[in-house]
C-alpha cells in the first residue's frame, strides 16, 4: 500500500566497479617536452576562457547601455 503522505528512502552503499588500480609513483616522470606541451595547452585554454569571458562581459555592458536612458548614463558618470 502506498501512502502519499510519507516519504521512504532506502539507504544503500554504492557498488564500485572492480577496476585494476595502479600506483602512480611507479609511473615514469613526464619528459620536459611533454611537460612543456601540457603547459602550453593549459595556457592556451586559460587565454581562450579569458577572451570568452571578456567578450561576454562586453556584450552584457553593451546590452545594459542600450537599455538605459542617456540621462541615467550621464548621472552615473
Number of helical segments? Answer: 2
Measured distance between first and last alpha carbons: 68 Å
- Low-pLDDT stretches: none
Radius of gyration from the CA trace? 27 Å
Fraction of residues in β-strands: under 5%
What does the overall shape look like? flat
The tally of strands reads 0
Largest sheet: none
Give me the secondary-structure category.
Answer: mainly alpha
Describe the structure.
With 77 residues, the protein is mainly alpha-helical. Helices cover 55% and strands 0% of the residues. The chain is built from 2 helices and no strands. The longest helix is centred in the middle third of the chain and has 35 residues, at 32-66. The radius of gyration is 27 Å and the shape is flat. The termini are far apart. The mean pLDDT is 77.
Write the topology of this structure.
Elements: H1 32-66, H2 70-76
Key descriptive features of the protein:
77 residues, mainly alpha, 2 helices, 55% helix, flat
What's the short version?
This protein has 2 helices and no strands. It has 77 residues and is mainly α.
